[in-house]
Design brief:
It is an enzyme of class 6 (ligase). Helix content is about 35%, strand content about 20%. The protein is α/β, with parallel strands linked by helices. The strands form four sheets. It has a seven-stranded mixed beta sheet with strand order 3-2-1-4-5-7-6, sandwiched between helices. It has a seven-stranded parallel beta sheet with strand order 11-9-13-8-16-17-18, sandwiched between helices. A two-stranded parallel ribbon has the order 10-12. The mean pLDDT is about 90.
């Protein structure tokens, strides 16, 4: 363990007034808990939970109340912090404790939920750490965390710069950089930033507060200020500021349910069933269309994909909902006096060696029931989304709107596949305006040829 980590341990081991001084930490923990409450998690289930950097148990207390049947592993780099939490929960058989550096995880089992509040800013290589931590998630498992972001301690940074002093506080990444740290091929994640202003009486009280919670450790690159320099900066702080700014980033990452893609279209008859067949054949995947309508007109997309992709019967999963009229699931179900509710349907993808290709019905906002749309089914299935778009006139509007809706719902997008006659101008415009990658272009075909699949495999391999 390097000297920087040793300093962190020493600081937190000696943070004797943590509970009394951790005002901002308490605010962030409450934000994180409220964030967790909105997630698609069954709180009554006996899930496995890992907490990284428990401190004195501010978050632990909320978690044990929120998940009464869960099995917990509570960790911290500080022995004394772990001892303090142990005193509170020593008689709880569902809680195990471990002294552990979150950047050097040594665990053999995986978890349904990993949580961490204001510990990641102490990591020396957060990007690499997030790769290791998310690798511990079970399929559909969540990582929910908070960390300080770039604008934290902005007032102090300005004062140090004005006085030509070496900045003593930690430096933190901005939200865009944090976004780039998520392992996109493993799952989908997002960050949302919030500014918290904490009033302080004076600069001395602020620095004492950091010491009380063990948060005063500087980086190994820090050059200590002289007593005169420090007094000058504190005096300027007292004169110009009565507060300190924290930029807190709340992060959520969900591991994909399995390998594969969810295929959606920008509008009707855009070719998503044909593209689904191409993906099924190229990846030797299992195909599933959870909601099928229009069976009075033809034998359905499942059979079409099976014929086009030449798959075995065991590579086709029957629909959960099969309706006769060629309408939206909501409208078709009403005609058959069926009441749909996606919360009562099982969208679980079983573990298998093959990837999945899951095809939606229509586009992202096709109605399923009152206040339920195809986009919510995508969240349940939890696979990266492939958008199938036309190449003809009108595709820019439809495609960009689809991209925007998916991003607003924090649904990861693998990319776009264009179906139709080649149109380089539309391809370039979608990539530029949508800030998105084009996976492949599929020409109009009646059959899927081996020659096309050989080329198609090369195009999709970077996204899979």
């Amino acid at each position: 363990m390097n000297s920087y980590k040793q300093k962190i341990i020493h600081s937190f081991d000696n943070a004797v007034s943590y509970e009394q001084s951790a005002h901002m930490q308490k605010i962030v923990v409450k934000r994180l808990v409220n964030f967790i409450k909105t997630m698609d998690i069954d709180f009554s289930q006996p899930i496995s939970i890992l907490e990284i950097g428990c401190g004195t148990g501010l978050l632990t207390q909320y978690l044990t109340e929120l998940f009464p049947k869960a099995q917990f592993l509570i960790t911290d780099i500080s022995v004394r912090m772990i001892e303090r939490v142990k005193e509170k929960y020593n008689n709880n058989p569902n809680i195990e404790f471990k002294v552990m550096d979150g950047e050097a995880i040594d665990l053999e089992h995986s978890f349904d939920l990993i949580v961490s509040s204001l510990a990641f800013q102490w990591f020396e290589n957060l990007e690499q750490s997030l790769q290791s931590i998310t690798a511990l998630l079970n399929p559909n498992g969540y990582l929910v965390c908070s960390t300080l972001a770039q604008k934290s301690f902005e007032e102090w940074r300005q004062l140090y710069t004005q006085n030509h002093c070496h900045y003593s506080f930690q430096s933190y990444p901005d939200v865009k950089t944090l976004e780039s740290y998520w392992p996109s091929k493993v799952g989908g994640g997002f960050w949302q930033a919030e500014t918290i202003i904490e009033s302080v009486e004076n600069g001395i009280d602020f620095i004492k507060g950091l010491r009380n919670i063990g948060a005063h450790t500087s980086s190994n690159m820090h050059k200590p200020l002289s007593a005169g320099q420090l007094r000058k900066i504190i005096a300027q702080f007292d004169l110009n500021y009565g507060y300190t700014t924290y930029e807190v980033a709340l992060g959520s990452f969900r591991r994909y349910a399995a390998k594969g893609f969810f295929v959606t279209g920008t509008d009707t008859d855009v070719g998503k069933t044909f593209v689904s067949a191409c993906l099924t054949k190229a990846l030797n995947a299992t195909y599933w269309k959870p909601m099928q309508t229009g069976l009075k007109s033809d034998f359905g997309d499942s059979k079409t994909v099976q014929i086009l992709a030449q798959t075995c019967d065991n590579q086709i999963i029957p629909p959960l909902v099969a309706l006769q009229e060629p309408l939206s699931p909501e409208a078709a179900a009403k005609l058959e006096e069926i009441r749909l509710d996606i919360n009562k349907l099982d969208f679980f993808l079983a573990t298998q060696n093959r990837p999945y290709i899951v095809e939606g019905a229509g586009g992202v906002l096709v109605p399923i029931a009152d206040s339920q749309y195809m986009i919510q089914m995508m969240q349940k299935v939890n696979l990266p989304v492939v958008i199938v778009a036309r190449t003809e006139l009108g595709t820019l509007n439809h495609t960009l709107l689809t991209i925007e809706v998916l991003r607003n719902h924090h649904i990861p997008i693998a990319g776009v596949i264009l179906n139709g006659n080649q149109n380089l101008a539309n391809k370039e415009a979608i990539e530029r305006h949508g800030n998105i990658k084009m996976i492949a272009e599929v020409p109009r075909m009646d059959q899927i040829t081996d020659q096309f699949i050989a080329q198609f495999k090369q195009e999709i391999r970077l996204f899979y």
